[in-house]
Amino acid sequence: MDIVDHKTSVRERVWSELRKVAVPDSRFHFDFGEFIADFEGGEAAVQRLVDHSYYRDSGYIFITPDNCLDRLRLRALQDGKKVLMTTYSIKRGFWLLDPAEIDPELYLYASTLDGMEHVGKPLTLKDIAAMPTVDYMVTGTGAINTKGIRFGKGHGFFDAEWGMLYQLGRVTTATPSAAVVHDCQVLDEDLTPDVYDTVVDVIFTPTRTLSVDSPHKPTCGIIWDRLDPHMYETIPPLQELKGMGL
Fold first, then answer.
1. What share of the chain has pLDDT > 70, as a percent?
2. pTM for this one?
3. What are phi and psi of 160, to 5 degrees?
4. In the chain, alpha helices (H)
5. Over the stretch 143-156, which tens digit does the pLDDT of each residue have?
6. In 52-198, which residue ranges form alpha helices assigned H by DSSP?
7. Half-sphere exposure of 62 (CA within 13 A, CB side)
8. 3 state SS of 4
9. Per residue in 124-147, pLDDT tens?
10. CB 64 within 8 A of CB 158
11. CB 133 within 8 A of CB 169
């Protein structure tokens, strides 16, 4: 079985269980290939993350635009942390949510994908390169094992986000990353990652906090000859990165 078939098989098996506990999306229902779902117990999983030292010690966090992380983006704003995120599919790039620049009454709105683009600030890669390094990366995912190897929706967005930030020098192999998932998404079996797949340092579920020893952090950046042409055509930051000679 090649790596694509391997990932597809794992995702389909996990998604059949996830459907039992997932919150359907208003646009995509239970099509987990199009969104990362929120799930029963999501509040408890995020609270575990908030109680962890990685969160407490961070002031500038990258949080993916996943349904299970809306509440984390809200909590981060309430805690005075700056949030870097992307739009759905990265099609409208990176945005900054700075709690110092947003009316606290709008924090809840800002934490949503619709609200973020109304009250947040769009950032080019040049803007991001001039900002501090990111303290923490947080994502949802499709499936993950106890070694922190994660298979997302299958589009490679988090790996692309990591790759761009890495090439800008805004994250390093020492930057911690975390996944927030339901227990049914965590597997004990071996998974086979690709060279650009990002492995997390810690996994938060509604019932467990799982630390990962020496997780693999890709240093390859964006591998242009393996990049899906559709991603390049629809993601302006990738075009900007290539234009920067990176």
1. 99
2. 0.94
3. -70, -40
4. 3-18, 42-51, 53-56, 70-78, 107-110, 113-119, 125-129, 157-167, 229-234, 236-243
5. 999 999 998 877 78
6. 53-56, 70-78, 107-110, 113-119, 125-129, 157-167
7. 26
8. helix
9. 999 999 999 999 999 999 999 999
10. yes
11. yes
